[in-house]
């Protein structure tokens, strides 16, 4: 096995491509975590967004309409979670798990009813998200691979990281949101409507989850397969914990997942067992969560130790 064929310059493009759906899922988890809501349902929202994007693209022939439809589907599912959790005080992990199970069953049913397929649906009528291409870069294979043929959502994903980092840490809205998650009682006493803030972030989370699914089905590929998210929503949540709900650091975690996914696909072409390759992202997810929890625990111990010294 030639390692140079695995770790070559084309790995950058492959990594960004694989990272994007996980990145949108991570941002969806980041924005809700700031309001102290763990969005476990990101996986289900992604899956529903992926199906709706393929279905709408197939029937309308418009990738743009398909993206908007996927975002609407994501918002509908996120609002179901929001109402159950915020209004009726349902456990967010329980309702998130229910959303994930509902999405698996519902997409399987709708795939059969609307598209007449089982398992996988692929058709030339599905219009994918266009890619950005610069003709003047094609003469150089390195520049062509590094900067050409990125999906619009792959570019927007990187921009979205910067936008959310700015919103969370440089705006009044971001300050109020972070206060809602950390000091909800004090925030409410200050006259801020924390219920409205939580609904806002759940809607934004639904939009991002829908985008994640749309990229997966009509950006990353142009088909729909049952349960095609394959744990990417959970990877996004893991990346959120890795980055401590910070968009920039969470992006780093997503890139790690995307890198492992891309390397795994290349290892499989060299005869590595498919079971081992498919296992890699989940092993990395467990490692990332373990490291994140250890880091969080050490930080809490350090803070408690500092407070004790101050009291003394």
From TrEMBL:
Keywords, comma-separated and alphabetical: Cell membrane, Membrane, Transmembrane, Transmembrane helix
Membrane topology, from the record: Multi-pass membrane protein
Major localization class: membrane
Zinc as UniProt keyword: no
Family annotation (InterPro entries): ABC_transp_permease
TM region(s), chain numbering: 6-30, 37-59, 65-85, 92-111, 150-169, 237-260, 272-294
Name of protein: ABC transporter permease
Organism: Brachyspira murdochii
